Amino acid sequence: MFEEEDDMYDSSFNEELERFEKMIETHNRYYFDSEMIEQIIDHFIIKNQLKKALYAIDLGKEQHPSHLVFELRRAQVYTATGSLKESLLILQELEKTDPYNPDVFITKASVFGQLKDPSNAIRYYEKAIELVAKFDDLSEFEDVLFDLSIEYQNIHKYNDAIGVLKQILEFSPDNESAIYEIAYCFERLGDFDKCIEFYELYIDNNPFSFTAWYNLGNIYFLKNNIEKALWAYDYAVIINEDFSSAHFNMGNTYMQIGNYESAIESYRHCLRIDGDDAITNCYIGEAYERLEEYDTALLFYNKSRKLNEDLPDAWLGIGIISDVRKEYKEAVAYLERAVSLAPENSNYKLVLAEVLLKLEDFELAKEYLQEALKLDPEYNDAIELYAKVLFELEGLTEDAIEFLENIPNLDKIDTRIRVYLAVMYYQLGKHSEGLIRFQTEFLNDEKAAESLFKYFPEAKKLEEFIQIIESK
User: Fold this and answer.
1) Rounded to a whole number, what is the largest CA-CA distance in the chain?
2) Are 227 and 259 a contacting pair, CB within 8 Å?
């Protein structure tokens, strides 16, 4: 609503502003024409000197009582300070006395936005836009249209938001916020194909928009079209070689396909552009870890940790390398730190439990697995490992069976878990139960045989299981 000052005012403004400041200091009362006092008010609002803004508003109202703009500014200051009821009272009166001023409706929409009332916010933004369309050029109200699109998103009307954002791009093709938000809206709709279609058309008209190429890459990545994602990111960095977000996502894409050397190169581009960053150093560390260059990985993980001691991924990475090197006690210390920094991350708890099992601390391992399952009751790896502790490490077959039977939505989780349960029944001596359960899983998914041989290698020599497998 208020632009940066820069060249907003003429050369006399500073003199008048100085005179106003002097008036406050000396407790005098000077006269200012209405246009100048409005400029002074806007100056104080931009500088967030709201008490002075209100003082200037009172002076303007006193000296120019017929000018409605001063009450509008009062409402805007009240909105900025959170006095929303007071602002609404003023705006209700202004709707009657100044019904053709779009700023009245824009301010009211902003109030309803703060009140988390998107329906009314939309209503008043649309009123403002309707007025502007009659008397002015909508291109001057880009921010208002953008705010309207956000309110549409707040009530999940993503198609309406896309329509408004496209309108912005018609008269402002370089509006990066609109380009990003359109991608978000299409993503929420799950309509990646239409999103790609939009960006390809947009790029046809704006081929040097690195932001559009970047967002196109993101959508291709979400569609798991890795080749196209890299192609789009590559165009983004050709157009703007200092666009670190594209380099970073290119690195993530290379990580996805196991091209760790190229991932490192992309992440190093980010460091050259943005300087040292904890997350980027951590990702480089992970790439070196995947390459099994553990000493180099540790250098980057430790650098990341020094830049941000509260980044859990760095502690996790060091813990994993300590585990690989059989330094289990050290690994536990690092992993416990990672878990404390990310207590809602079930995967961290699983990794810690795996190391604790190597130290034969079964009880503590089970505690962490239980915590992981509280966070994610259908976490297959945690279910499998907890059952394994009971069944294989502690010999509590019946407890293991009871645990698996009580898993919520057992029929919807990974087939391998149900195959493991079939193996338990068989090994407990309930052969028929085990065979029936395995047969049910195998008929639905032939990969059940792989799980069977993983949990029960001896089954390869048992005729009962071989008959089931060969009968299909």
Assistant:
1) 105
2) no
